[in-house]
Amino acid sequence: MLQFKRLVAASAVVAALAVPGMALADDVITLGSAISLTGKYSTNGEHTQKGYDLAVDIINGRGGVDVGGKKYKLEIKYYDDESTPARGAELAERLIQQDGVKFLLGPYSSGLTKAIAPVTEKYSVPMVEANGASRSLFTKGYKYLFAVLSTSEQYLASSIALAAEKAGVLGKKPGELTVAMAFENDPFSQDIRAGVMEDAEKFGMRIVIDDKLPKELNDMAPTLTKVKAVKPDILVISGHAKGAATAIRQIAEMRVDVPMLAMTHCDSAKVIKKFGAQSEFTLCASQWAPTLSYSDDYFGSAADYAALFKKTYDYDPPYQAAESSAAVLTFADAFARAGTLDPAKVRDALAATDMQTFYGNIKFDETGKNIAKPMVLYQVQNGQYVVVAPTKWAAAEVVHPRPKWADR
Predict the structure, then answer these.
(1) How far apart are CA 253 and CA 248, in angstroms?
(2) Which residue, 127, 177, 199, 271, shows the most beta carbons closer than 10 Å to its own?
(3) Distance (Å, whole) CA 34 – CA 132
(4) Does the global pTM surpass 0.70?
C-alpha cells in the first residue's frame, strides 16, 4: 500500500505546481523514478523502492531538507518500467516532459540505467542511481549521472588490495604475488576483469592465468588444472551464481590449494547452504554489510539501518535497498548545499559531494562514479559470512592463507 499512497501524493504535488517547469508545490520536492514493479527485475525493483521510501520517510520525519533557509519535504513519483529498457526510457521522458520532474532516482539494473541516462542527459536532469554498476555507464561523458554504488570494475579490487596488504604472511612483497583469473565472457564479468587487471598492475603483480569462461558454465576443470600446476597466490573468479557454485564444488573435488580465493555471487549461489564446509575461507564480494562501521545523522550506523528496515518491512535489508536509501540521502545533501533547486546548481553540488552515510562514503569522480566506497569482502568463516575487508571496516580478521585441503 505504501507505494500507491506515495504515488497518489506525488501526483497531487505535480498537479499543484508552484514554480513553472518544476515538480514543486506546498514546499515539496518531487523526485521521479521509473522502477521495475513487474517483470524479471520486480523483486530487486521492490527492494530498491523500499530503500527509496524508507529514506524519504526518515528525512521527512526529521523535518525535511533545508534549502536556502526553507524546509522542503520529499515525495517520489513512481512509474512501473516493467523491467523493460525501452519502457524505462519512455517513462523517464514522461516524468521530465509531462510531469515536470527535475530530479530522478535511478531504476534497477545497469540495462535500465543505460536506457534512461541519455534521456536525463538530454534534458539536463540530475539522476542519482544506486543499482546500475556497469562500467560502461561512465565512459559516455554524462554530466548528470551519479552512482552511489561501487561500479563493476571495483567488485574484486578489494581482494587485490587485501592480498597486497597480507603479502608478508606468504613471505613475499606485493609485487611478487601472482594472480590467476577466470571470468565469464559477458560484459559484467569482463568489467570486473578489467578492474582486477588495473589493480594487479598497480601493485606490480603478475597475471599467470587469464581464462574466459563460457556463459553455460558447467566445468572449470581446465582452469583449475592450470591453477594446480602454476600455484598462483590469488585466484579470482566471476561467473555469476552458476560460476560461483561450479567453482566451489570443483575446487573441493580437485583439492585445489590456493592461498586466496575471491569471487562474486556467493550469496546468490547460496554457497554456504549448498556446499557447507567446502565453501569455508572463500572471499565473497558485496556492496554493503550491516556490520560495517559507517554511520550518518539520519539512520545512525549500518546496523541501525538494518534494524529499522527489518522493523519496517519484516525482512533483512539486501544491499539493493541500502544503496537506494543512500541515493536519496545524497540528493538531500546536494539540495542543502546547493541552497537552491535549480537543476544545474544541484548537479554541481552533486559533483562536489563528499559525505559519509550508513552505506559508506560517497564522493564522485568526473565521470559520476563513487570513488570513496570500496566493495566489501566477506569471508566464509564457520559457516557464516564475515566482513574481513576493507580492513578499516572489518568485523573479523581474514584467515590467510587458506588452509590446505590436507590440513582441514
Answers:
(1) 9
(2) 127
(3) 13
(4) yes
